[in-house]
Amino acid sequence: MSRGTIGTDGRFGVYRSMDDGVAAAQRQLLLYQDRDHLNTARGIISKWAPPGENNTNGYVDTVAQRMGVKPDEQLNLHDPDVAAKLIREMARIETGRDIGTDVAHRGVEQAQAARALPANAQPAGQAGEATIRAAAAAAIASQYAQSQAAQNLIATQAAQAAPANIQGGSGAPTPAADP
């Protein structure tokens, strides 16, 4: 498992917190920039969400527009503000939800702090790209699943606490017995 993961959903890492998921996404995006020399929304997103699996052009256009940049404009993902904006907008595309500015910044800062550690403090080896490719989306999906489970638990508890004269979920009262 890659750093920060607590498991997998079978395809992507599951993270302990949203911040950890964003940090994993930032680490991956920095690899794209520094190792692969991808430094535009088009280049980065084309690798993150390849055309064979996604509407990559629509993804690129939407993210670039929301960030206020051109799709082929150079981005510096070592700038925390730029990285947080990119990850936040990519997460919106991946999940349809906004992770928030604070979460995006905390996760980016967490990743950058980890990169500042001495080389011998880093885990050995490189995390698998497929595991952390959609880290932000996986973290959000995990949080959403927890929210859904909580809502289901509340509904179950409410149903169990309902008056005994309510049948099923129909709301139709049970006829009273004659005294």
How would you classify the helix and strand content by structural class? mainly alpha
The largest sheet, given as strand count, sense and whether it forms a barrel, is: 2 strands, antiparallel
Strand neighbour order, sheet with most strands:
1-2
Rounded mean pLDDT is 75
Which value, in Å, is the CA radius of gyration? 22 Å
* SSE pattern, N- to C-terminal: EEHHHHHHH
**Poorly predicted sequence stretches spanning 5 or more consecutive residues:** 117-134, 162-179
CA(first)-CA(last) distance: 67 Å
Shape: globular
Strand content: under 5%
| Continuous helix count | 7
Q: Number of DSSP strands? A: 2
Task: Sum this structure up briefly.
The chain has 179 residues and is mainly alpha-helical. It has seven helices and two strands, in the order E-E-H-H-H-H-H-H-H.
